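Homework help board

Subject: predicted structure for assignment chain

Our instructor gave us this sequence and asked us to write out the predicted structure in token form, then describe one feature. I got the tokens but I'm not sure how to describe them. Can anyone check?
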Amino acid sequence: DVDERERRLAQNEALFREVNERVEAVAHRLGPDVPYEFVCECANADCTFRVQISLRTYEAIRSDPKQFVVLPLHYTPEVEDVVAEEDSYWIVRKSGEAGEYVEQLDPRGR
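My token output:
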């Protein structure tokens, strides 16, 4: 079972993802290739940083419910793997039980 710390970290990231789903609705008005500010979806509940990516990039990341967009180095190696490293953002993917947990929390899966 997912331990309490891993669950808390996953919940933090899922919460930021919920915020970004609302940001995404606004970004649609600008078109798929205009850079837009999304919140960093890292596990740190106090993180207030923004990640500038296009809607097209955000949608590509969100196509996998276990993936999150974070600032470089804003990842938690014990619960996720770095999938891609760009200059201004990284894509991380939850692994193991934490991955299954965030998949259940995915607002697009409801």
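Reply (TA_rk): Your tokens look well-formed. For the description, you could write something like this. The first helix runs from residue 4 to 27. That's the kind of observation they're looking for.
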